[in-house]
Amino acid sequence: MYSRIILMGIFLVLTTSVSLAQSYVGFLEDNYSGVHGIISNPANIADSRLKLDVNLIGVSSFVGNDYIGFNFSDALNSFSDAFDNANTSPTENNFIAWNIDVLGPSVMLSIDQKQSLAIFTRGRAFFNINDVNGELLDKEGGFDETEDFSLEEGSVYGAFNLWGEIGASYARVLLNQEQHFLKGGLSLKYIQGMGNVYIKGSNVSVNYTSETNRVSTTGEFTYGNTDTFDDEGNGGDFFDFSGGGGFGADIGLVYEWRPEHAKYTKLDAQGNPIADRGANKYKLKWSASITDIGEISDTNGVERVYDLNKTQDKDNFDGDVLEDALRDNFDLLSESQSANITLPTAFHTNVDWNLNSKFYLNLNADIPLTPKQRTNTNRVLNQFRLTPRFESTWLGIYSPLSVLEGAGFQWGAGVRLGPVYLGSGSIISAIAGKNTKAVDLYAGLKIPVYQNKLKDRDNDGIINQEDKCPDTPGPIENKGCPWKDSDSDGILDKDDDCPNEAGPAENNGCPWKDTDGDGVLDKDDDCPTVAGLAEHNGCPDADGDGIIDSEDRCPNTPGTVENKGCPDTDGDSLVDIDDECPTIAGPVSNKGCPEVTQEVQKQLNDYARTILFDTGKATIKPESVSTMVDIIQILNEYPNAKFTVEGHTDSVGSSESNQKLSEARANSVRNFLTNEGIASNRLTAIGFGEDKPIATNATRIGRQQNRRVEINLIK
After folding, report:
1. Is 16 within 8 Å of 143 (Cβ atoms)?
2. Where is the OmpA-like domain (predicted)?
């Protein structure tokens, strides 16, 4: 039995590539992970639960494969026995992987409600071999040299990388619209390569013939390394910073659904809104990011391609260094500058469900965006993970359950206790399982400074430190104190127009007044400023006709409802105040007065023509007084009628003297009538002299008829 005697055996020990499993499994989903949040998504640090987070040191390491499964408890007792008794699952493309992720001194600062900044240092190393034929792994460590051996390896890929990072992350809130909240982040980092070895084999096969002790190989093999390895292919100083440099970037978005957003907004004493930065406000959170965009260039190394088509003695392969075996036993086909290192670009997404204030359920996916067959390329493993967790300010407990590419089901546990964090994404499944193919572990120490949670004991929306009555709910207008009710009338002083005097709500907290002192309160008084009667809702009824004065056209004279409180003395359907003849019935068309008919007109003139005057004078003779009385009676029956009193003479004498005499007699009759109570405005005296005879002046009888007085209605 002997070891490492064939080329593929050496591949097992020294060939490497990169296959990165998720670092700090379970811890990165914690809302209190602080600066660690930038590892999976730089947007995580915006609206952080920490004011300041200083990471002192954190280490996360992973080893896994799809070839060998061992009993973890056996490994704790005897590491070599555990592997001797392990189960193997050889395939044509097995892999073995290891990585370590060290987060060095780093700091995150929450600038304000919208912005956060982080400065970080990080060291990362990866070891992996991909697409190895499992039969080769079975033979590694020795085989029976008396038996022939044949292996078709085909293609194999690998790279070992070690680098350091220093970078900055900036994140800010992009949208904060009630229940919708969106933030974004970007990390930029300088990457310093500190060591690299990579291999690529094409159409590789190995055949051993025991009879001749000869090994026949075929194919082509590429070997590259930085100058951290010496010219003989031996490992040199990995940390001499000659492995090239480059720049990388991470970018991410986080969306939060906050249906109870108002619950997390409080007020200061001035009523300005304050967000509770110490509380998680979402019911559901979704995030997506792309990490490790970039490459390391100018690696200052050499890539050599060897021709493996050769048959030679097995003893030529003794030794521990792959480069020695290649250089000493195979022909060099080409030599060139080593390839740039492609970073393990990956897509990460997760959904976080807030079951209640402290319990969460997270579904996460890590998906590689770089192929494992690319030369000198790092690559993450596909991993899908479900993590229930308990989360509070000083304590976080989580137990991730995941399916890891090649390694299968993983079950882990982790804890964050103030400044200390430690855990594993696979510790439970490793301890309980009998066929463990992957194990990871992380631990670290930091100094977290948490955001203060806004406290509001009385739930009135005003934070305790600015609430004048923190234990009793009250409005912002009263600085958080309840409004008083000084007069105990059930109306708060702020709404009470009479805070020191009890009164009903209908009167804004004031007692009802009785302004006019009539015993009827103003609220029930239709005439609050004029004293009245209760039966008339506080309004007066001066004439006692049952109609209040404000609606009574004749408030001082009793009347009827249909006449709006006015009387109709003569019953002619025209109330007295509108009736020019209130005591004498008459038609409405004549303003309630009787109309002068032709018969009445004739009667007036019949009387008027009998009025006698002294000869040549205007003096009415005493025997005509009775006639005048009759005329007055007729005129009084038509009180709104107006008349002309006309004087006429015969032609005896001069016309001038006749004119004067007619005017004098007309005025004499008018004066008599007005002196007896006929309104002067109803009578107009006119003299016509001898101009309007009604008979001939040639006879005595005719002249007598012409000497007359007429009283005619003015129409």
Report:
1. no
2. 600-715
CA–CA dist 513, 507 (Å, integer): 10
Host domain of residue 690? 598-713
CA 535 from centre of chain: 59
Last residue of a domain, one of 450, 466, 499: 450
**Interatomic CA distance for residues 431 and 502, integer angstroms:** 77
The CATH number that applies at residue 625 is: 3.30.1330.60
Does residue 271 lie within any of the structural domains?
A: yes
Backbone region of residue 44 per phi and psi (left: phi > 0; alpha: psi in -120 to 50; beta: other values): alpha
Residues whose CB falls within 8 Å of the CB of residue 254, separated by 6 or more in sequence, listed in order: 41, 43, 44, 46, 182, 183, 184, 185, 285, 286, 287
Residue 33 has pLDDT above 50, yes or no: yes
Of 541, 533, 497, residue with least CA distance to 517: 533
DSSP 59: E
Counting every residue, how long is the chain?
A: 715
Rounded to whole angstroms, the Cα distance separating 38 from 247 reads 16
Nearest 5°: phi and psi at 377?
A: -125, 135
Per-residue pLDDT, averaged over 592-600, amounts to 84
Which residues are bridge partners to 287 per DSSP? 254, 350
How many other CB atoms sit within 10 Å of the CB of residue 675? Answer: 9
Q: Are 370 and 340 in contact (CB under 8 A)?
A: no
Residue 84: predicted pLDDT: 66
CA distance readout (Å), 633 to 343, 571, 598, 609, 629? 134, 21, 17, 16, 6
| Among candidate residues 348, 373, 23, the one with its CA nearest the CA of residue 165 | 23
The amino acid present at 676, given as its one-letter code, is E
**Chain centre distance of CA 604:** 98
Q: How far apart are CA 25 and CA 427, in angstroms?
A: 11
492 domain residue, yes or no: no
For 96-135, b/e burial (b = at least 16 CB within 10 A) is bbbbbbbbbebbbbbeeeebbbbebbbbbbbbbbbbbbbb
User: For the chain, what is the domain count?
Assistant: 2
| Contact (CB, 8 A) for 616 and 649 | no
Nearest alpha carbon to residue 665 among 604, 607, 613, 606: 613
Most confident of 68-82, 264-278, 337-351, 557-571: 337-351
Cα angle for residues 686, 691, 694 (degrees, 5° grid): 100
pTM: predicted TM-score of the whole model, two decimal places = 0.65
Rounded CA gap, 373 and 148, in Å? 31
Predicted confidence band of residue 269 (pLDDT cuts 50, 70, 90): low
> Nearest 5°: phi and psi at 538?
85, 5
CATH number at residue 39: 2.40.160
- Tell me the per-residue pLDDT of 230-241, one tens digit each, with 9 for 90 and over: 544 455 454 556
Q: Tell me, what's the pLDDT at 414?
A: 97
Burial class (CB in 10 A: 0-12, 13-18, 19+), 24: buried
| Phi (first) and psi of residue 452, to 5 degrees | -75, 130
Task: Locate the DSSP E strands across 210-337.
Answer: 214-226, 245-257, 265-267, 273-275, 284-297, 301-307, 310-313, 331-337
Does 586 map to a domain? no
What is the spatial distance between Cα 332 and Cα 8, in angstroms, rounded to a whole number?
A: 18
Could you tell me if 693 and 708 are in contact, meaning their C-beta atoms sit under 8 angstroms apart?
Answer: no
| CB-count exposure of residue 262 (10 Å: 0-12, 13-18, 19+) | exposed
Domain boundary among 407, 435, 450: 450
In a domain, 86, yes or no: yes
Q: Name the nearest CA neighbour of 219 among 155, 157, 158, 159.
A: 155
Q: What is the pLDDT of residues 208-238, one digit of tens each?
A: 888 888 889 899 999 988 765 454 445 545 4
- Compute the distance between CA of residue 607 and CA of residue 628 in angstroms, rounded to an integer: 8
According to DSSP, residue 643 is labeled E
- Rounded to whole angstroms, the Cα distance separating 115 from 66 reads 43
